[in-house]
Amino acid sequence: MPRATHLSDSERAQIDAFKTAGWSNRRIAARLGRSFNCINTFVNNPDHYETNKKSGAPKKLTDRDTRSIIRLASNSMKSCNDIKNELKLDVSKSTVWRTLDSNQNIVRAKLMSAPMLTDAHKANRLQFARNNMATDWDKIIFSDEKKFNLDGPDGFNSYWHDLKKDPLHFSKRNFGGGRLMVWGAFSSAGTVDLAFLSFRMNSTDYQDVMTAKLIPYLRRFHRRQLTYQQDNASIHASRSTLDWFKSKKIKVMDWPARSPDLNPMENVWAELVRVVYGQGKQYQTVSELQTAIVDAWKNLKKPYLQKLLNSMPNRLFSIISTGGKPTKY
């Protein structure tokens, strides 16, 4: 049965007149064709009749409290308890969490690691960005080293737990198990063959890797006049290594220290990690892991590599716009 409409102004005036004349609520209801409860509700509190009432418990936080919570949480590492205590709120931490969760601009994110940069580092990064705005990145060979473990990379063991099933476990060997150090490089011409390195390399060992891997690649694509990029690790920047590059007439790009976000090889390593350790994959032997790395490396597609090279101008713009600070890359 549909709900009756609210009393009209005319009906309310009649009720007032009838009550003044001494009529009962039931007699008024019969006269107006309204229910007794309707008449009774109006008579008992005419000033608040038809005022909407919100259901549920009253709000524990004022609008000002909500704004303060959002402002304090914005890009901070404060916990819900920290926020509650700092603002002296008489609410539970769950109330603070619900306030943050309901705001579309505040999300829980994993803190990204970035190298610590001094003012000198930032200045060098800025100068690099400005000096290379017109660089042809298709003529750069980007390189880097990466460690791979049998048990998988650190922090790569999350999963969706179905509470109706037994939990999964991340198996980890005593003392970390086996590991591999890998050198890789690529350019617009494609990937360079991987090199598997010793964990105790010196400058001579690094030069041997360059002889075995980089020089054949440069000879193969000599018409492109490629320039080699490397970071500032000690064996890369030693006098011995720099003299070796000079003797081989290999042009090496000046590179700002602590700038992994500028190197697209970091993105390539992330892609290899995704493939090699997909769905929590672990390895029993170093040989098995090495085979998986090589297979994933060979399956890298040129369009993917080219897309990374095409991102270089945007990386430089980000460096300039942030004043040399770490970027999202």
UniProtKB/TrEMBL annotation:
Residues 64-100 form the Transposable element Tc3 transposase-like DNA-binding HTH domain. It is found in: Nucleus. Residues 3-51 form the Tc3 transposase DNA binding domain. GO terms for cellular component: nucleus. Signal peptide: none annotated. It holds the Pfam family HTH_Tnp_Tc3_2_like. GO terms for molecular function: DNA binding. Residues 140-289 form the Tc1-like transposase DDE domain. PANTHER family: TRANSPOSABLE ELEMENT TC3 TRANSPOSASE, TRANSPOSABLE ELEMENT-RELATED. This is Tc1-like transposase DDE domain-containing protein. It comes from Caenorhabditis nigoni.
